[in-house]
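Weekly modeling sync, notes
Attendees: S.R. (lead), two postdocs, one rotation student

Agenda item 3: backlog of single-chain predictions. S.R. asked that every request posted to the team notebook include the full sequence so nobody has to chase files. The rotation student volunteered to paste the first one in as an example of the format we agreed on. Action items at the bottom.

Example entry:
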Amino acid sequence: MLRVGLTGGIGAGKSTVSATFAACGAVIVDGDVISREVVAVGSEGLAALVDEFGSHIILPDGASDRPAPAAIAFSDEDKRRALNGIVHPLVARRRSELIAAAADDAVIIEDIPLLVESGMAPLFPLVVVVDADVDVRLKRLIEVRGMAEADARARISAQATEDQRRQVADIWLDNAGTEGELVERVRELWRQRIEPFSHNLATRSRVKAPPRLVAADPTWPDQARRIVARLNTACGHRALRIDHIGSTAVPGLDAKDVIDVQITVASLDVADELADHLLGAGYPRAQAITTDVAKADGRSTDETFDHATDNGVWHKRFHASADPGRPTNIHIRVTGWPNQQFALLFPDWLSANPGVKVDYLATKRIAAEHHDIDLYVEAKEPWFLDAYRRAWNWADATGWSPG
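Predicted structure, as returned to the notebook:
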């Protein structure tokens, strides 16, 4: 099962995106629909709202006048917290019931208006944000929904900012154009990323990036922060620390477009306990391998060190993303072990020594000319064996310790 979080500001076009996903075959769990359901006539939610806001929020037919408490809440922070405190737990419970009833291989699109504000983004292997400029959204709210301009502006300002949404967005859908254009982008997203992602999770298949260097991407650290947040949520207290490592953690260094992340744990037994949690987050596990077969598995930068120095045994656990849109390698290593320490040291050493960074990049470029993962790894391995000694000499000389 693949769970996708969908959000966007009011008037951005989230309903169109949700409807398109449904037409593609997704199971939609709509936060707005559930919010209405949990305050229906005779519900515990409606009774709680009456206790908090008064009986004037009840219409003659006994139903809730939903805009009434919402209008009060949007102008009063205390009332907003009270409204959320009543509705959100009920919505969460009903959402869990709907997800539990879905098929194991379903794609669940969870349409959550306040996904960012509620801090729920790290719960999802993929987060889709649909957005449009404030002026465009205002026009839609006034002309299509019939809102007063002041009310529309208040609702927009009460929600997350564009920057806050961008921080959690794996996919950003700009809905400044026509509805037809948005529908086509969503269908393409389904075909090229979401459907393959779901298939990979079902088959526990990992995405492998080719040994091709790309120019340093300034968004790599932001992408890594989203991944780390997701992993922290999945691992909980079992992770002693989670770090962005490898070449993409070195500013300005050309690299394979793969985010490497290290999860530090107390033991490999703990690493094994994380397997199902990481699968649920979108990261299937690879089987432990020896040096003889490692080259066929698409090792990343710091995997070279693991296999070159561990006497043929893979002293870690390895997971990788099933998401074709974001190749990611997850290395789980034991705290204090040499491979765990070196993975933290390596980016700091390169960042502090421009000459070493240039030398390593030259090695990577020569290795990448082979266009073959086996030869790529072999070409880098001698450099890493010497780099291990030099890096630790630098660490001793500077008093380096893991940050």
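Discussion: group reviewed the output briefly. Confidence is low (pLDDT under 50) at residues 289-305, 307-313.
Action items: rotation student to repeat for the remaining queue; S.R. to check formatting next week.
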